[in-house]
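Marked as duplicate of an earlier ticket. Keeping the data here for the record.
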Amino acid sequence: MKTDKHGLKTEIKLFIPLLFAFLVLTQGCEPKSSSSKESSFSPMQNGFGVVVHEIGIDSGPGAKLYYKGTNEEPVLVWPCIGTHGDPLLYTNDIVFLLADKPDGQGRTGGGALIVVQGTGPAMDITGNVLKIAVEQAHVDFKIALQVCWPDILTRTQDNKLEIIYGASSVDHPEIPRLKVQITWEQVFAIMQDVKNNGKTNKVVNTDVLYLQKDYDSTNGSK
């Protein structure tokens, strides 16, 4: 446990247990079938935990993120923890992770920066953090929205959150891989912005709601 200069006690999950990493390796967000089986709630840190569920031979197992805290029953906050192997970063009752997020057809494989406070709703802040990264790199935000994706999430020794965005060099070679470091205070400010200006969406094939600021690729200044 580390305490930063603002008195925030921050805990980090440096390594996902080997068994858990194996179970989520091929996860998806398909609706649970009648033959699927779910494990019980397994606590992790700061009130959060996971439930692993078997989906089927073709689609493999999956893992859902829950928040229990002092509640009698855990509350589902994100339906598909990522296969990226990145850590889950914690401070107080907030978790920040690079998670899987299904596309419009329910297919997984793409990642999103997800932050959740308590029982949620979760927030997708991928675009918010990308905007900071492109401003530092002096590249076009509208183009970056189209060709960049969050690839790596880590925590630095001075308790900052480091995110690396991949980029399609074939389509737009002028957009490099982007690296940005942000503080928890910046995360809190982003969360407030998303609360005030974000739109409510639903994760495909689930009943899980999340907030996201609408950065239209045709008008990245929104």
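See parent ticket for discussion. The CA atoms of residues 42 and 49 lie 5 Å apart.
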